[in-house]
Amino acid sequence: MPDQNPTVSIIVPAKDEARTIEHVLDRLGELPFPTEILVVDDGSTDDTAALVERHGGARLLRHERNRGKGAAVRTGIAASTGDFVVIQDADLEYDPSDLPKLMAPLFQGVADVVFGTRLRGGEPQRAHLFWHYLGNRFLSLLTNVLYNTTISDMEVGYKAFSGDLVRSIEIVSDDFRFEPEITAKVLRRHVRLYEVPISYYGRTYEEGKKITWRDGIHAVRALIRFRFGPM
Q: Which has more confidence, 81 or 210?
């Protein structure tokens, strides 16, 4: 940990996550560093927003209608003030107890960006859905070819950034294309990017998983678009 305790802005995009949102906030409240927790309720039709307000451990930002994960993250980034920014999904597929080790390269000053990876290291992993796993491996390979890097898990939900860096990047994607877009734009800036193994407690569609094969096709197009388009 650094000598001066930096603040970490934790952006929690949430759409109909009443089942898990309080647990997420409880877990984030246990972290051993100063945090600014920003929950972006993206047009939920359940009690997500009310539960966040009742919990009192986070600042609530609201979209009156569902605009997509990218739009929610963009709202959170714009409102953030922390030295570092990290994205925490509200469904507990990613374990908040992994955040200290995810943030470590940033705290140590050796990284500008840190991605979690579900595909390297020995952390607990729920068995992946095969086609999601295959699609993710393909997207990571395409990223490496296009951007001359060695990322193993481009689509991972745990991504952490220097606050000044991520706030300087213009994000235009409203949906899950946020993941390839932010990856493309940080890699084109030649940042110091590290990967850290994390655990993964994936959900099935019956349990509320939202990403589909169509998002994989959109991600391919986004990787190509942002490789050759304007920064």
A: 81
Render pLDDT for 173-182 as a digit per residue (tens, 0 to 9): 998 899 999 9
Distance CA 58, CA 29 (A): 9
At how many degrees (to 10) do helices 130-147 and 178-187 cross?
30
Coil, helix or strand at residue 231: coil
The CA distance from 219 to 224, in Å, is 9
- Measured CA to CA, the distance from residue 108 to residue 182 in angstroms comes to 22
pLDDT at 5: 86
Residue 205 neighbours by CB under 8 Å, 6+ apart: none
Residue pLDDT, tens place only, 118-146? 887 666 566 566 777 788 889 999 999 99
| Nearest one of 21, 178, 22, 29 to 8, comparing CA atoms | 29
Domains and CATH numbers, the chain: 8-228 (3.90.550.10)
Output the average pLDDT for the chain. Answer: 90
Dihedral over alpha carbons 138, 119, 158, 111 (to 10 degrees): -100
